[in-house]
Amino acid sequence: MDELDLERLRTPLPPLSYPEGFRSGFACFVGRPNVGKSTLMNALVGQKVAITSNRPQTTRRTVRGIVHRPDAQLIIVDTPGLHKPRTLLGERLDSLVRSTLVEVDVIGFCVPADEPIGRGDTYIARELAAQRDTPVVALVTKTDKATREQVAEQLLAVQELGGWTDIVPVSAEDGENLDRAADVFCGHLPEGPPLYPDGDLTDEPDEMLVAELVREAALEGVRDELPHSIAVMVDEMGPREGARPGRELTDIYASLYVERPSQKAIVIGAKGERLRRVGTAARKQIEALLGTRVYLDLRVRVAKDWQRDPKQLRRLGFDQQT
Ligand SMILES: Nc1nc2c(ncn2[C@@H]2O[C@H](COP(=O)(O)OP(=O)(O)OP(=O)(O)O)[C@@H](O)[C@H]2O)c(=O)[nH]1
């Protein structure tokens, strides 16, 4: 898992001109799994830079999405949902979240509008109360899924949970208050030059985004316990030589890792049918991302109990040491 080097990123790019009073800096969203953090980031950035799914704990990597505004540049660091760790992977994810919290300029604490506040939310609220130096904005997410009364009640309940600098109800689905949320976050950033060129939406390498898109496609419609057992690595990726101009093709060879042979059979499906569908769905998304046609070769491999094995975790890129 890539370590954040925010100090390096704070070094301004030399030729960028910017108006006086320009603000730039980092924000991160925290909250229980499945509260809509990745979807909100994508909506604010305006493009899919983090994968989402209706299963908890989809996010495993810190993806930076960049929101460009005339007066500010907001870089959003996406984190996995905080939860009580059960596996070594869970522990690594939690420590990744914690190390991110102390490095950002502002934190967004996400609580969904359509679910009662639970132990998970209170646990995180307590953790956040310890971040005394960093402002925390509470976001009541998914307001489109709740009535106005429910949203109002949730705003009050969230207020009770801690000392937030602001509370903003938002919906990534219908766009409610997205601008306001961006305003509030930008207001907490320090003055400084843009940190990324105009137009950059993320600094994740393409290989990482491609692997995440394959993982997203593979998560569709599998049994509940499987998502946490799937990891994807791009083994090789590059332009096809000799392709005619206007007909560019990118060759991608990727491996889909599962923990047990029985899971391999599920992912592949009868006569390879499921894997073919995963490949087709992923290819469409990757073609949109890269802007070329894509040849995608997917292999399913077993990495026995990789979530509990430090060596395997390192090999699959989850090598955050803390
Ligand atoms: N109706 C509605 N659904 C939403 C909204 N935001 C997110 N969702 C759905 O909620 C589910 C979870 O969203 P994610 O963005 O993956 O949640 P997350 O908090 O990043 O989840 P983890 O990666 O598990 O931490 C997905 O099915 C989304 O489509 C929203 O504003 N309205």
Q: Which features characterize this protein?
A:
322 residues, alpha/beta, Rossmann fold, GMP Synthetase, Chain A, domain 3, 34% helix, 20% strand, binds guanosine-5'-triphosphate, GTP binding, GTP-binding, G_ERA_dom, ribosomal small subunit binding, ribosome biogenesis
Q: What is this structure's SSE topology?
A:
Blueprint: H1 6-10, E1 23-30, H2 37-45, E2 64-68, E3 72-78, H3 88-101, E4 106-112, H4 119-129, E5 136-141, H5 148-161, E6 166-169, H6 178-187, H7 206-219, E7 231-239, E8 249-258, H8 261-268, H9 273-290, E9 293-302, H10 310-315
Parallel strand pairs: 1-3, 1-4, 4-5, 5-6, 8-9
Antiparallel strand pairs: 2-3, 7-8
Helix pairs in contact: 7-9
The structure holds guanosine-5'-triphosphate.
Guanosine-5'-triphosphate binds at residues 31, 33-39, 52-54, 56-59, 80-81, 141-142, 144-145, 171-173.
Structure commentary:
This protein has 322 residues and is α/β, with parallel strands linked by helices. It folds into two domains: 6-187, Rossmann fold (3-Layer(aba) Sandwich); 206-315, K homology (KH) domain (GMP Synthetase, Chain A, domain 3, 2-Layer Sandwich), CATH 3.30.300. The protein has helices spanning 6-10, 37-45, 88-101, 119-129, 148-161, 178-187, 206-219, 261-268, 273-290, 310-315; strands at residues 23-30, 64-68, 72-78, 106-112, 136-141, 166-169, 231-239, 249-258, 293-302. The strands form two sheets. It has a six-stranded mixed sheet with strand order 2-3-1-4-5-6, with helices on both faces. The chain has a three-stranded mixed sheet with strand order 7-8-9. Helix 7 packs antiparallel against helix 9 (273-290). It is globular. The mean pLDDT is 79. The structure holds guanosine-5'-triphosphate.
